[in-house]
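I am still getting used to backbone structure tokens and would like to learn alongside you. Please make up or recall a protein chain and show it to me in full. Would you write everything just below, so we can both look at the same thing?
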Amino acid sequence: MGKNAWVQAQTTQFTAPGWHYLDASSGYLGGNRNNGSYVTLKSTNNSDYSTVIETVDAAARRR
């Protein structure tokens, strides 16, 4: 599966149409792109949130 398809699958699994990305709650794990990234989305009713974390390109396993 391609990277873009994987991102789409994970995002749509935990959100719904109309949800918005929260820029202040998204970024790189440990501040380093090589560790992976995370995005947080907020629902249209403003009471539900979802954070999607990806480590597809992580250089090493973290404990």
Q: What stands out?
A: The helical segments are 3-13. The beta strands are 20-21, 27-28, 37-42, 49-54. The radius of gyration is 13 Å.
